[in-house]
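Worked example 3. Consider a protein that binds LQESDW3C.
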Amino acid sequence: MELTLIGREPRVFDGPRLPADATVLAELTAQVADADLAAPPVVLPDFHHKSTMELPSSVAVATAGTIRPTLTSASVNCGMALLALDCERPGVAGVIEFYRRVRERYPYPARNLRELSTHEVRRAAVEGSYFAAERFEVDAGELARVEEFGRLDLDRYGGADRLARELPSLAYQLARLRFGTVGPSNHFVELQVVEEVFDPRAAELLGVRQGQLTLQYHAGGGVLTGEIGALFGRRKHYPRHLRMAMAVQKPLYHLATARSYRQLRERLALYFTDGCPPVSRDSEEGQRLMLANAAAMNYGFAFRTATYAALKKIAATVFGGTGGRLVVDSPHNSIYEEEVGDRTAVVHRHNSCRAFPAERCAPGTVFAETGQAVLLPGTSRTSSYLAVAGPKAEASLHSACHGAGTLVADFAEKGLSAEHPDGHETLRFGYDGAAAVRVRHFDDNGVNAALGVLVDHGLVRPVARLRPLAVLN
Ligand SMILES: Nc1nc2c(ncn2[C@@H]2O[C@H](COP(=O)(O)O)[C@@H](O)[C@H]2O)c(=O)[nH]1
Ligand SMILES: [Mn+2]
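Given these inputs, the predicted complex is written out as structure tokens:
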């Protein structure tokens, strides 16, 4: 048997003005010390460690034969999307009305309204975005812009019937709530204008042009993704309501369905002790975990397709036009089986998005010409970028960072960034209904530094720069 030795040292994409933090690098290295790596772990710009997460952000890790849920968020399929609008730039009154309607549709705190029936939750878990497109009237052709067309095939992992037999009905009941909700803090709904186009051909293919209005949003995968994450181990982020739900769901899911004493003991050891141990991909438990992961991913895809439908409808009503077209929707917390080198590996991305080159995208789609579209947001006070996968994306396990928020803050703190000299402003809305406030923009030094690293290494090619006009967060 040929043995390939894989380096354990992370492959770090950083730069002199944005060096990856040595302490956080040491944490990452320690965390993957015993992992069956299929390639060196990848560290991207905006590398930092959030206290509620096991793994630092802006990371991709490929393992050869195990699934390691802690190498991504406990709730998979948090993601971002970009919508290209086809209307004139609205006045302030239009913007205020737009966000009033968004808050009305998706208030925060969310209503305890059942958005879906249990049958529909099952469909979302099995059919992903295809279910949501039918239910919320989105042209199925638009799903070519959603990663994996918004649906992972459950049949590879035991099928929908197995999921229906095993997942407790309480999981479906809770997942009827809050479907499509965006919410505040790092989640946002931002109106932008395309200020600069770098790659006119890619921009045209993607449906974006100079001066155009765009809408970018960041939303989680929803209740079912959190429940499934919690079923497979104890995670750092384990709020009380989830603990209460898990007290019932975990024994039903893992123990009541066990078919032998051996299986019962194995599941007790895997899912009822501290932490969240790795699971062998080729084992019965690995198959079951991949099935649950695919269902969670599908529900998350459906969730953001529902958000897309709602935002598009509101934009059409308030601004006129059709409400626009989807440019891209991609998760930044995911577990996929992908080709790495010459074998299939389990690729875990944590707060990093996939950047597949044209040849890995589905034939006949726009991404098969441009490469997968990649979003690199700055903040609501800086530009954000639309890019596509670059010629050397393989070097980063086909991954790019999902944002540059901490870099923008670091640059401002270190005096490497200052207020924008042209006096640009964003109209910022909150969920409390208070009057919006105007906030001054920074220069783009922070987000440009992140983009520069990705571009210099050939991981992405920039397509357009987007300046925020207004945001709800
Ligand atoms: N354009 C905007 N980008 C934003 C906003 N708030 C956050 N962000 C970016 O998103 C990423 C992801 O956030 P995270 O907390 O999940 O890491 C962050 O790094 C920022 O780049 C916003 O209002 N507008
Ligand atoms: Mn996210």
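Take a moment to read the result before moving on. DSSP finds 14 helices and 18 strands in the chain. The chain has a mean pLDDT of 96.
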